[in-house]
Amino acid sequence: MQKLVAIKGMNDILPPESARWEWLEEKVRALMARHAYRNIRTPIVEPTPLFVRGLGEVTDIVEKEMYSFEDRLNGEQLTLRPESTAGVVRAVVEHSMLYDGGKRLYYLGPMFRHERPQRGRYRQFHQIGAEALGFPGAQLDAELILLAHALWQELGLQDVRLELNSLGQPEERRAHRAALIQYLEQHQEQLDEDARRRLYSNPLRILDTKNPAMQVLVEGAPRLMDFLGKESLAHFETVKAILDESGVAWRLNPRLVRGMDYYNLTVFEFVTDRLGSQGTICGGGRYDYLIEQIGGKSAPAVGWALGVERVLELLKDQGVPVPELVADAYAIVPDAAALPQVMAQVQRLRALGVSVQVHAATGEGMGSMKSQFKKADASGARFALVFGADELARGVVTVKPLREAGEQVERPLAALADWAATLQSSR
């Protein structure tokens, strides 16, 4: 029969690599708890109109990248989520979560986009995101940026720069849009096919082009910042002032527009040069009109999402050490007849917080002591626990260090709690 394999761009995450994912997720959960952000989990499949309405009909995601299909049961149009902000907002609206005030939320999970797989860009990829909903002030924009910056410090990441811009409010963008279209119409011969397609539907995205032949043209385009009113500028100045006071370096990027239509005021990205064209590892901004667009009562919001694969790739590129998940101890069992007694002792240790891997029996018994010690050493465990017939008869277990200096010693089975406490304090 033909061997079945995973879909291209949708990858299995296997041990020991999965340990790196768990390590990152644990760091994120601890950081979110310190910032009073609470976990939210939304469905992977959502109604297609949620993303069309929320992200914008003329965005690349909606036009080209969504995995959409018809529900065979009722004909409903459904989509595998390409991002999570719209789903979080939908859940907040559906469950009236803002009735008693703003909410700080975070999520972790897979997203799906139909595009050509390459380093740092996959068809199934994973994001971690943070959203603060129901808070209008520039303080929250800065808080979200500081939260992401704190994560880079927690992970030991370097060579990550923060780029900022303000998109202002819709009326300010409309004035800028008219000026931008007029400018680009005068240089249509320099526009590539994608820019000509966007000229009247979404001209702001032309400013984000990666086409080298259009860079001079884009640099000379009208700047949105020049169309911002006093309130939008004051909002942006407050964000920058908080970042400056907190010692977080930033760079103004007037071409930064992000890929979704729902943003207004502050937008930002954390970027590295170490991952080539996939250098944006985190991005976000304020989206004060999305909640109303999705059917809720008007309320402000701001958030960001990071690409897990890109962050892990950057950690690996910079040589940041990520601890492997290995057992504290490996239980060696010379005689299969002793397994019931050994398993009972092992369960005691596990209940005390010690991770123990038990040597698995083969069809011919437990195998030789030599082979079991080889397996114990290969497992990465710190200690081997030898449950020999003589030891068990005397109510003891032999503890042999495998990764550090020290002699093997016998410990009473009745006093394993003391050894467990000592082991955990030395981690």
TrEMBL record:
It is an enzyme of class 6 (ligase). The keyword Cytoplasm applies. GO terms for biological process: histidyl-tRNA aminoacylation. This is Histidine--tRNA ligase. It is found in: Cytoplasm. One of its GO terms (cellular component) is cytoplasm. The keyword ATP-binding applies. Keywords: Aminoacyl-tRNA synthetase, ATP-binding, Cytoplasm, Ligase, Nucleotide-binding, Protein biosynthesis. It comes from Oryzisolibacter propanilivorax. Its main location: cytoplasm. GO terms for molecular function: ATP binding; histidine-tRNA ligase activity. L-histidine binds at E83, S84, T85, R113, Q127, E131, R258, Y262, Y263. It catalyses: tRNA(His) + L-histidine + ATP = L-histidyl-tRNA(His) + AMP + diphosphate + H(+). NCBIfam families: hisS (TIGR00442). Residues 24-334 form the Aminoacyl-transfer RNA synthetases class-II family profile domain. InterPro entries: aa-tRNA-synth_II, aa-tRNA-synth_II/BPL/LPL, Anticodon-bd, Anticodon-bd_dom_sf, His-tRNA-ligase, HisRS-like_core, HisRS/HisZ. Homodimer. Belongs to the class-II aminoacyl-tRNA synthetase family. Its EC number is 6.1.1.21. The gene is hisS.
